[in-house]
Amino acid sequence: MTPRTSFPVEIMNIKEKRRALIVAVKAARAAGTLMRRHLHKTKAINSQTRFDIKLELDVRAQRLIERQLSAAFPDVPVLGEEGDTGDFNSDLRWVVDPIDGTVNFSHGIPHACVSIALQQKSNSDYETLIGVIFDPFLNEMWTAVRGQSSKLNGVPVHVSARRRLSDCILTLGFSKDAVTLRHALPVFNRIVYRVRKVRMMGSAALGLAWVAAGRLDAYREDTIRLWDFAAGGLLVECAGGEFWHRPKKGVHTYEMLAHNGHLRRQIEACYR
């Protein structure tokens, strides 16, 4: 796994990026306030499967975010977990997960967040310019602008310095389809004996933010959607870590690894 290091010439100037960051932070706070108000209330379910839940509040939160982003940047489309506005293949796009950790949230577990990223087209792919993750239950606002340090509530953060996997806390995620489980469970069985602890906390975006801050040392997921990592991946990179991802079969579907820059080979060995 080789981290991506080449980036395009950025479309937005410093002033425009600063404005975009302010708008994204404001939108994230608005959606987060909505989440906080409804944490312990009965929530309307739009759909559910054996392993996932879609809430009416997911849609309401995304619409709230879309209104604020579109008011400030009417020509930039929004690609979100709850639908798209405009052409999401344009040169710039917002990528939004209005409630990352919906199952946690629906059960009243206060570990969920809002994730907003601004991306720029780079050849046939996209690079994230701005990332915002807001945890309304801890009142933690994570921000990153490419080329600057990641910040938590305005204070710079950095990935951990641990070099031995046996000293590390690793977070994992994997979907529960039969094919993924056949591959992931043996890997889990190898990893769990090689690390200090494994945590599976139910919010990919917060998992990445916590890697960026050194609370966790690495995060590996075999199947993850774009809106789950678009903001958090930039947070990890701007905090001195490494973020790798590559597309898989399925729309906006990837596998990814985020870590502090010292653990890639040790983690890869667990997957062989």
Structural commentary:
33% of the residues lie in helices and 30% in strands. It has 272 residues and is an alpha+beta fold. It has two domains: 143 residues, Fructose-1,6-Bisphosphatase, Chain A, domain 1 (2-Layer Sandwich); 106 residues, D-Maltodextrin-Binding Protein, domain 2 (3-Layer(aba) Sandwich), CATH 3.40.190. The strands form three sheets. Strands 4-3-5-6-7-8-9-10 form an eight-stranded mixed β-sheet. Helix 1 packs antiparallel against helix 2 and helix 5 packs parallel to helix 6. The relative contact order is 0.14.
List the helices and strands and how they pair.
Elements: H1 14-38, E1 45-48, E2 53-55, H2 56-72, E3 78-80, E4 83-85, E5 92-100, H3 102-106, E6 113-122, E7 125-135, E8 140-145, E9 151-152, E10 155-156, E11 169-173, H4 178-191, E12 197-199, H5 204-212, E13 218-225, H6 226-238, E14 242-247, E15 253-259, H7 264-270
Parallel strand pairs: 3-5, 11-12, 11-13
Antiparallel strand pairs: 1-2, 3-4, 5-6, 6-7, 7-8, 8-9, 9-10, 13-15, 14-15
Helix pairs in contact: 1-2, 5-6
Q: CATH homologous superfamily of the largest domain - what is it?
A: Fructose-1,6-Bisphosphatase, subunit A, domain 1
Q: What is the overall silhouette?
A: globular
- Average predicted confidence as pLDDT: 90
State the helicity in percent bands: 25-40%
Unreliable spans: 1-8
N→C terminal distance: 13 Å
Number of domains: 2
CATH class of the largest domain: Alpha Beta
Q: Biggest β-sheet, characterized?
A: 8 strands, mixed
Work out the strand percent: 25-35%
Widest sheet: strand ordering: 4-3-5-6-7-8-9-10
Which class do the helix and strand fractions yield? alpha+beta
**CATH topology title of the largest domain:** Fructose-1,6-Bisphosphatase, Chain A, domain 1
E-strand count? 15
Topology as a string of helices (H) and strands (E):
HEEHEEEHEEEEEEHEHEHEEH
* CATH architecture call of the largest domain: 2-Layer Sandwich
Number of helices: 7
- C-alpha-based Rg, rounded: 18 Å
